[in-house]
Specification:
The complex is a heterodimer of chains A (502) and B (151). With 502 residues, chain A is an all-alpha fold. Chain A is built from 23 helices and 2 strands. The chains are: A mainly alpha (502), B mainly alpha (151).
Chain lengths: 502, 151
């Protein structure tokens, strides 16, 4: 019953006019960036962070969250109609979705994708509502050693489970941690690595650095292939799937939701891994495995449900533990800190309206998305024709003015430029930017927990292994780190991500 | 033999360079302390040791690049990299509108596919859009034109 009361509280704040408007704005923008290739949710959320500074924390989070799960819906439109994943997590949808479009079943594929996403979003919302309070109760007993171990585990999981070289990912995480240390040391009040620049005393600005690494660097990456062409799309005839199509989709949608809900919680999992796992499983279970790759509806229903479920449950570790599981969640943590909320297990207890309001808004957002995606799909299809050469000058302008409007400091524009060039260098040499962002956000916390743990234990480093919870987390982290070198996992990773690049 | 110009080669060297720099800076400027009484330099030094080991591992495991990347568009890198700096230099001295016009113009010249006539439309359109959103939407407190410039 308590759960029901809490959800009612959430609904009551989520249906206020302002919450609804910002939810609508968020999911619309999300759908848009999901559709437009070359503009991802991480870059968009980073660019819009400055705009949300003037909003209440709840409203800011509602909008930013909407961008993330809205992008999962939008990504499927591009994947199905032009065979380009607007979003990495829609990459597998493109395989069978595009074939369906070639067979004249584009409308059915879009419909199943939207319905599957909606079912997944609804179930995942319930999962968050049930799992989060329990997890945060558990986490409230954590002390500094447990937190340090947990953060370490989180970073290692992101590195191991995310795309790209694990070793380089680890290096990027450490560089991020280092950058997070710039500024005043909380224990001694001594400044570190500030080079006499006053603005650096409170640390390198989070907004400027992330807009650079994600927004600006992405422009440079996209301009490597500088063509002004537009994309050809397939026409949509009827949106309604046939009866056998519907029947074949029920199983994949439910299984995809389950897979996504579980993998989404794991750091580094999230939407991307979920959709790949779901596709592999559906291919194995299907009665018609030969149809996969030639327009099997299961190959659309499963992954699309899984990526939306995963996108939503990846909020669980962020909301309950303050540990981001991917780049977007790291940005959400940053948004909370900028708004003056300390992320962690206390958020649910101290900010019930924020927590339950955000959850309720996710469900409302999913309803809005179904309406936006199905009847209005022809509007979105027209967006597909926007060439990138029209888009990126606007993106650049928003990067600049957004960064400047956050604090009104010119130096942050210079940080933006440096971060953008650095981010582009990272991309060129195959160093993933997500672990870097994670390290950067978590840097000050990791150091604080470590030093506090050492103060309590009087310099006894075994404290991480003698306290049971911390020991379990540490063991898990060590096993994972060691398994990076295991040949079995290496080849499995290679296989999973080889599919991704097709 | 390691190919220093490969992705892995450059990454490893980058990690090593950052590690050495942070280690030297921490040792020179910051108090390190002991494990039971850490100074401000302890954590940076520890991180740089970890980063250096990762850098060496990356170099030892360095493989040749698997796929050829598209060549770097140096024109775009220069212009897009400089645009925020120019924006920063002009936003107070000239005002929001000139700063936007100049930086968007720099962006449009970085792509070879934008025709001159289209560029004009994009520059004006983007500037109007940004002014509408930021000046009249979220009301940033910066003037559109520096008043001293007009008088």
């Amino acid at each position: 019953m308590e759960l029901l009361n809490d959800l009612m509280l959430g609904l009551s704040v989520a249906v206020s006019m302002k919450s609804l408007m910002l939810c609508l704005l968020g999911v619309t923008l999300g759908t848009l960036v999901g559709i437009l290739p070359g503009l991802g949710p991480a870059a968009t959320i980073a660019m819009l962070l400055p705009i949300t500074l003037g909003l209440e924390p709840l409203h800011a989070l509602i909008m930013l969250a909407g961008i993330y799960y809205g992008a999962q819906y939008g990504g499927s439109i591009t994947a199905i109609l032009v065979n380009l994943p607007g979003e990495p997590s829609s990459a597998v949808t493109a395989i069978d979705g595009y074939q369906m479009a070639r067979n004249g079943r584009a409308g059915a594929a879009l419909c199943i994708a939207a319905v599957g996403s909606f079912v997944a979003g609804t179930i995942a919302t319930v999962v968050i509502a049930v799992a989060s309070p329990a997890l945060s109760q558990f986490a409230l007993r954590f002390g500094a050693p447990e937190y340090f171990s947990l953060t370490l585990l989180g970073i290692i999981m992101v590195v191991v489970l995310a795309q790209g070289s694990a070793l380089k990912g680890m290096g990027m995480a450490v560089i991020g941690l280092m950058l997070g240390l710039v500024g005043t040391d909380v224990f001694t009040a001594q400044t570190r690595f500030t080079y006499g620049i006053n603005e650096f005393r409170s640390g390198i600005d989070f907004i400027a650095a992330t807009i650079g690494v994600f927004g600006l660097a992405e422009i440079l990456r996209n301009l490597e292939v500088d063509d002004g062409g537009t994309r050809r799309t397939y026409a949509i005839s009827s949106l309604l799937p046939t009866r056998p199509e519907m029947k074949r989709s029920i199983g994949p949608i439910l299984r995809g939701t389950g897979i996504g809900s579980i993998l989404g919680v794991l750091p580094g999992g999230g939407a991307f891994l979920s959709s790949f796992a779901s596709y592999a499983i559906e291919k194995k279970l299907s009665k018609y495995p030969e149809e996969f790759g030639h327009g099997a509806i299961e190959g659309v229903a499963g992954p699309e449900s899984a990526n939306n479920a995963g996108a939503q449950t990846s909020f669980i570790p962020m909301l309950t533990l303050g540990i981001p599981s991917n780049a977007v969640m790291a940005l959400m943590i940053g948004a909370m800190i900028v708004q003056g909320i300390q992320p962690g297990p206390r958020v649910i207890a101290t900010q019930p309206e924020l927590f339950w309001g955000l959850i309720a808004s996710m469900w409302i957002g999913n309803i809005i998305l179904v309406i936006l995606n199905l009847p209005l799909v022809s509007v979105w299809v027209r967006m597909l024709k926007i060439p990138y050469s029209v888009l990126f000058p606007g993106v650049l302008a928003i990067c600049c003015i957004g960064t400047f409007s956050a604090n009104g400091l010119e130096i942050e524009l210079y940080i933006l430029a440096v971060a953008g060039l650095a981010g582009y260098l990272f991309m060129r040499i195959g160093c993933p930017p997500a672990p870097f962002l994670l390290g950067f956000v978590l840097g000050p916390m990791v150091e604080e927990h470590f030093r506090r743990a050492m103060l309590i234990s009087q310099g006894d480093a075994t404290v991480f292994f003698t306290r049971p919870i911390s020991a379990a987390l540490m063991m898990l982290a060590l096993v994972l780190a060691a398994s990076m070198c295991a040949p079995a996992l290496l080849s499995w990773r290679k296989k999973v991500f080889a599919n991704a690049e097709d | 033999m390691i190919n220093w110009r490969s992705q892995d080669g450059v990454s490893g060297l980058l990690f090593l360079a950052v590690a050495v720099y942070v280690a030297v800076a921490s040792l020179l400027d910051l108090e390190i302390g002991r494990l039971d009484q850490m100074g401000p330099g302890f954590f940076p030094l520890a991180l740089s040791v970890i980063l250096a080991s990762i850098g060496i591992l990356v170099l030892l495991n360095a493989k040749p690049d698997e796929d050829n990347q598209a060549p770097v568009n140096w024109r775009a890198v220069t212009l897009i990299g400089a645009a925020p700096i120019v924006f920063g230099l002009t936003v107070r001295s000239l005002g929001l509108v000139p700063a936007l016009l100049i930086s968007v113009a720099m962006a449009t010249t970085s792509s070879k596919t934008i025709k001159l006539s289209n560029a004009g439309i994009i520059i004006i359109g983007v500037t109007l859009f940004c002014v509408a959103v930021f000046k009249f939407g979220i009301r940033v407190p910066y003037p559109l034109f520096n008043p001293r410039l007009l008088s």
